Amino acid sequence: MVQIPDKVLKEKLVKAGLITEEEFEKVLFDAKRMGQSTADILISRNYLKSDYYTGLLAEYFGVPLAKLSTRSIDESVLRLLPENIAKQKRVIIFRREKDGSLNVAMNDPNDLTTIEFLSSYLKAKIKPFLATGEDLNRGYALYGRRSAEEFRKIIEDNIKASLQAQIYGKSAKEAAAEVPIVAIVDNILSYAIASRASDIHLEILEENILVRYRIDGVLHEITRIPKEVHPPIAARFKLLSGLRLDEHSKPQDGRFRFQASGGDVIDIRVSVIPTFYGEKVEMRLLEATSRPLSFEELGMLEDTIKVVKENIAKTYGIILITGPTGSGKTTTLYSIINVLNRPEVNINTIEDPIEYEMKYVNQMQVNPQAGITFASGLRALLRQDPNIILVGEIRDSETGDIAVQAALTGHLVLSTLHTNDAPTAVPRLFDMKIEPFLVAAVLNMIMAQRLVRRICQDCITSFKVTPEIANAIKNQFKGLELENPPEIPKTLYKGEGCSVCGGLGYKGRLSIYENMNVDEEIRNEIVNPNFTLDNLKKILRKKGFVTMFEDGLRKAERGMTTIEEILRVIRE
Ligand SMILES: [Zn+2]
Predict the structure, then answer these.
(1) Which residue among 5, 33, 205, 558 is buried most deeply as judged by most CB within 10 Å?
(2) How far is the CA of 249 from the centre of ligand 1 (A)?
């Protein structure tokens, strides 16, 4: 992405009152230190929203914004330029005007060489618009969608050919040998990338092989492959990832790098395990590391951001993020660390595994063979004079104990716990034999979270709330003894399914949160000899605590996600 020169940016932002000169200098220093752009740091530290920055950029270049999220893209015009050229030049052609000139969304609207190239290649006048990465991806998804359908067709055609060969008297083995395995494997991978899948599963059933992709956290059946074709496909994946082909009885792990037809290069982690019917292959598609998300991009609303910011500014105490596995806790922790990552602080982590490498953060990996556990690692890193400590998870009383001692001796400790909601973290700490007065002394904030799918903004539509949905919402408030239960919304949103989201109606994810700020009143309740979880929840209620369901409901009302998603993750 092109940038506004730092000097110009500073002047504009200071004038707009979004940042002081000193703060800007700090950001500038950190941007250089961490090898990120000034804009990225500003956005991830919540000084400004990415939309606002894009607006400034357009103003600076004197071109209109492409805004392909709210504008329909003329697909016949889009395809005037082949996909590989569009990707290489970072452009999308989205409309032809009456006078024949073409509107082009460009990453760098100042790039005259590209404008001249397009003008002569397309024999038309080019009108540049400023595009964000998201704008361009929307356009590329349209190219991608067509090829995604082609992938499925190629996979199915190849399989049909194999079955036909069997009808003509060839044995299953001979037929399988004729199937273009390399083409099937390439297409399974390319189709997954075009669908934005995070995982590929080849599940072995009695009759056939089920190919499933995980997209935004949910598994989708893609196709079924006849059993005869499975051994050569499994062998192909093992070959690609450097695994032993003659080993069929032990689990194996490997990885490889794959270049999709669209030019995207992606790392793939492979796990092969023996099952009763044959080898089960699972693949994790590793996203190219991008910058950590800002609190807003994670899905936090204003009131949540305020409480988080207040609590991470403290120099000691414990911040806990809670939720089941896969609820996005680590992503939230990395976003917090990114905000805290300044030269004057020493940040140390003990993680299992290290999911994201951060510059100037001392990250340690749990390794039981080498004797590094959460507890022993934590003890070791306390000798490194840290200010801020991230412990991947508090699982046992030993780790809990050291974390509490660290928090009491002037360290800010960030960690996670496996509890379903925020208040339950308190009795969980009691279960770990941590004295109530210590729990009360060290806790700053407990935040529970879940991941939900985001409604695709290209096919979002509203609908009248049915009595069934209204009842499902009412049920969530039952038993809370509310004086004023919240109103049931009359209109909610969903995605109808379109080419951009592959017909799913969802694209991307966000978190829903409940944020328990541990203040004086809560501390008093924690040390109350008659402490009960119910009482704690009642007190929170009175203080206007927003539960995870309520946070989800308000996000559903804003069209960020669907009520089905909220109910699905709340029930889990
Ligand atoms: Zn859509």
Answers:
(1) 33
(2) 43
CA distance 43 to 39: 6
- Buried b / exposed e along 251-284 (16+ C-beta atoms within 10 A): ebebbbebebbeeeebebebbbeeeeeebbbbbb
State the Cα–Cα distance between residues 2 and 540, nearest whole angstrom. Answer: 46
How far does the centroid of ligand 1 lie from the alpha carbon of residue 86, in Å?
22
- DSSP labels, 82-95: -HHHHHHHTEEEEE
Please tell me the distance between residue 503's alpha carbon and the centre of ligand 1 in angstroms: 6
Q: What is the mean pLDDT of each run of 10 residues along the chain (572 residues)?
A: 87 92 92 86 86 90 88 85 87 93 92 92 94 83 65 72 64 62 83 84 88 89 83 91 90 87 76 89 77 87 94 96 93 93 90 83 91 93 93 95 95 96 97 96 97 92 95 85 80 90 89 97 96 95 92 95 94 72
**Residue 561 alpha carbon to ligand 1 centre in Å:** 13
501 CA → ligand 1 middle, Å: 4
> How remote is the CA of residue 139 from the centroid of ligand 1, in Å?
13
pLDDT of residue 419: 94
Q: 215 CA to middle of ligand 1, Å?
A: 14
Give residue 105 CA to ligand 1 midpoint distance, Å. Answer: 20
How many angstroms separate the alpha carbon of residue 195 from the centre of ligand 1? Answer: 12
Q: Name the one residue in this structure whose structure tokens are 């909610």.
A: 492
- The pTM score is 0.72
Cα–ligand 1 centroid distance for 143 (angstroms): 14
Instruction: Report the sign of the C-alpha dihedral through residues 336, 428, 555, 458, in that order.
Output: positive
Phi/psi of residue 34, nearest 5 degrees: -95, 0
**CA torsion 524→528→531→535, rounded to 10°?**
-50
Write down all domains in the chain, each with its CATH number in brackets: 6-134 (no CATH), 137-286 (3.30.450.90), 295-571 (3.40.50.300)
Residue 492 sits at the vertex; the CA angle it makes with 486 and 496, to the nearest 5 degrees, is 160
The label of the residue with tokens 């009456």 reads 98
Q: How far is the CA of 332 from the centre of ligand 1 (A)?
A: 26
